[in-house]
Amino acid sequence: MLNLQRVAQFVAVVDAGGFTAAAQSMQQTKAVISFNVRQLEAELGVSLLVRSTRRVALTQAGEMFYQRALQLLRESEALVEEVQGQHGGFSGELSISTTPEYGQAKIIPALSAFGRLHPGLTIRHESSSAPVNLISGQFDVAIRLGKLVDSSYRAALIERFEIVAVAAPLWLERNPIGSLEALAEAEWVIHRRLPTPREWQVIGRDHETRELTITGPARFMTDTAAALMAFVVQGCGVGLLPEWLVRIAIERGELQQVLPEYRFPSQGIYAVYPNTRHVPAKVRALIDFLQDRESNRPA
Fold this sequence. Notes:
The structure is a single chain. By secondary structure, the protein is an alpha/beta fold. It has three domains: about 80 residues, Arc Repressor Mutant, subunit A (Orthogonal Bundle), CATH 1.10.10.10; about 100 residues, 3-Layer(aba) Sandwich (D-Maltodextrin-Binding Protein, domain 2); about 110 residues, D-Maltodextrin-Binding Protein, domain 2, CATH 3.40.190.290. Helices cover about 45% and strands about 25% of the residues. The chain has a five-stranded mixed beta sheet, covered by helices on one side. The protein has a three-stranded antiparallel beta sheet with strand order 12-7-13. A two-stranded antiparallel ribbon has the order 1-2. Helix 1 packs across helix 3. The longest helix has 29 residues. The mean pLDDT is about 90. Keywords: DNA-binding, Transcription, Transcription regulation. Belongs to the LysR transcriptional regulatory family.
């Protein structure tokens, strides 16, 4: 039977990049950490690490064991927290990853309210436009927008939102757009992290779905929605953005919706979490809190 303490120390060595740093992070001596990792290797009958004077590296077996060890430690932690949470409320750390824009607009206010309900909980929030690996990144939850492609995680729908095509009013004066054909041939600002940034569907007033393939030039490309909106406000072309993000800019007259008689299919916002046997109670509670918060929000 695996010794979870030794497994945790092995993971600490990998995460810290060496025995000395791992010993400092776990408040143990280097000799104890080294001994326990050697014992773990002896129990498994394989070498997990290649040691040198400057660094340690994972062997092929070590890489496989490291990924499974992360999952094992998370499941054991979730089981303990679930049992303890039934008696004394949530404690420990809740780690969540979001995009910068949605995190600032929606999730951080929600996390602040959730934290007030659970004062024993420490909340770690990180912003990134790039997809994160929940296991290696040690995240409990990631908030993702749009279509989900990774089936190795579980996902819960939080809400749906509309996306709209927008441009700066002065740009539209110089480049009037009166049809889908003109929209397709216009100059666009592209979100380069989308899987198919030039292929879209639109729905007209007749409820018919049409294909929209952007053939116009895209001189500006970026990797965040906030940066894309900034380019569009500067008159660099048309951009496709979440309605909740551009609403105020439209009200101020900084942006104008293009072809409002057409709409794009709504997108989902999902709470994504590791597909483990024991889902932490704090994760389930957070997802329920986010869903209730959005369902009770005034339209």
